[in-house]
Each structure stands twice: as C-alpha cells, then as structure tokens.
C-alpha cells in the first residue's frame, strides 16, 4: 500500500515530511470511517465500500475518495495550520477508533491534534477551554443558531442550549457535516429563516410571480411595423 502512496505523491507533487508516509497512511485508514459519516450518507454505503475481494488499488482508491490521502501531506496540512494548532491547544480531537485493529496498528494513539499542529510552535493543552465556552453558551448565550447533521460524528459534541436566550438548535435527519437550513423540514426552514431575518432587522423578501411560458412565444419587435410583426407571428406558429 505504501507504493500506492508514493505513486500518488509523485503524481500530485505531495510530500510527507511532517507526518511521514507511514504515519500518514495509517491515520488515513483510521479516519476513513469518521470521514465517511462526516461527508457521506447511509445511501452511499453500497457504492463507496469495496468488497472483501478488492485489490490494494481498489482499497486505496476507496479510502482516498473518502478521507483523501493528500489531507495528511505537507500541502494538505499547511492551509489548516491554525485549526490544527487550536485543536491541539483548546478544541481537542476525536479519540482514535483503532483498538479493534490490534497489532495491525504500528503507531497507536498518535492520531491526535498535536501530531498535526505546526512543528516548532509550542503549545499547552487547556482542557477547560471548550467547557468554558459551553458554560457561556448555556448561561449567557443569545441569538445563537446551530445546525447539525444526525450522521455527522461531530454532532456527538454538539452544544447544549441550556438557558441561552432566543437561540435555536436544529438537526438535519440523515444529514452530515454539510447540514444546511435548506435541508431542514419546511416548517423548520421557515422558522430558521424568519429568525435570521428578525435578527438582521430585514423584512422577508417578496418573491416575484413565477414566469409561465405561453403556448406561443411572444414576438419582441417594438419598432417593427404591425404588418411585419403579424408576419413574424405567423412564421412562429408555423
């Protein structure tokens, strides 16, 4: 499988100096299940998961399509350096789901935020950072709106509204990390949009009447003499 990583890196000019290609591959394997539910849906299970008879190339392609081996390259990590630093210092990181793999794991307990944090920048993890924010949300928060997807693993750590004022939490049934207002049931969509309009102090937009194509398309010729306009209309009807 490492040869496939090397071939992919050569094709797309990727380097793995921060993690190393072995660690990058192992972390990609470990995170495939997480990324699948983060970005895919239950309906894609049959089309995205290869059979037991799949070749190494087929397995690599399936994993790469879900999690992206380039995400673990130097080029994939650099744009998210600030996020990875904050994850290591404050946000925390999902616990690796790897125990069931036993001896197949060569780098146990390494798929954590600090591994992805920019090298050479010191940090100290503050375990109280996120609980402090949750306390603020549930005790002092106001005009907050959260939208989660029921399949998204990150929803496991969803905020709790508690005693926050004029705040709302919606969950898109069957939704993933891309959950949007437009994916909510019609009644919740209307409520969420009305709330946002109220917060912004704007009136709901009035929709223009829907255009309905007539049986005979109009002839646009405001400066055409009437007899020519009639001839044009007859030509269209023919």
From TrEMBL:
Keywords: Aminopeptidase, Hydrolase, Protease. It comes from the Bacteria. GO terms for molecular function: aminopeptidase activity. Pfam families: Peptidase_S37. Residues 215-238 are annotated as: Disordered. InterPro entries: AB_hydrolase_fold, Peptidase_S37. This is Prolyl tri/tetrapeptidyl aminopeptidase.
């Amino acid at each position: 499988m490492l040869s496939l990583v090397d071939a992919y890196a050569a094709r797309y000019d990727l380097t793995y100096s921060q993690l190393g290609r072995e660690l990058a591959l192992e972390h990609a394997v470990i995170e495939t299940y997480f990324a699948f539910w983060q970005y895919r849906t239950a309906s894609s299970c049959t089309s995205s998961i290869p059979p037991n008879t799949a070749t190494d190339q087929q397995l690599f392609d399936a994993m790469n399509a879900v999690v992206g081996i380039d995400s673990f390259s130097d080029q994939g990590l650099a744009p998210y350096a600030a996020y990875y630093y904050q994850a290591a210092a404050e946000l925390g990181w999902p616990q690796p789901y790897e125990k069931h793999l036993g001896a197949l794991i060569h780098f146990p307990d390494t798929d954590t935020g600090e591994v992805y944090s920019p090298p050479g920048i010191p940090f100290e993890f503050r375990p109280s950072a996120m609980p402090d924010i949750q306390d603020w949300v549930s005790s002092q928060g106001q005009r907050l709106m959260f939208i989660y997807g029921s399949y998204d693993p990150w929803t496991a750590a969803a905020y709790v509204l508690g005693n926050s004022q004029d705040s709302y939490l919606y969950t898109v049934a069957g939704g993933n990390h891309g959950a949007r207002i437009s994916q909510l049931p019609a009644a919740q969509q209307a409520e969420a949009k009305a709330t946002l309009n109220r917060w912004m102090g704007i009136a709901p937009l009035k929709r223009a009447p829907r255009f309905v194509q007539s049986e005979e398309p109009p002839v646009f010729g405001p400066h055409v003499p009437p007899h020519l306009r009639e001839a044009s209309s007859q030509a269209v009807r023919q």
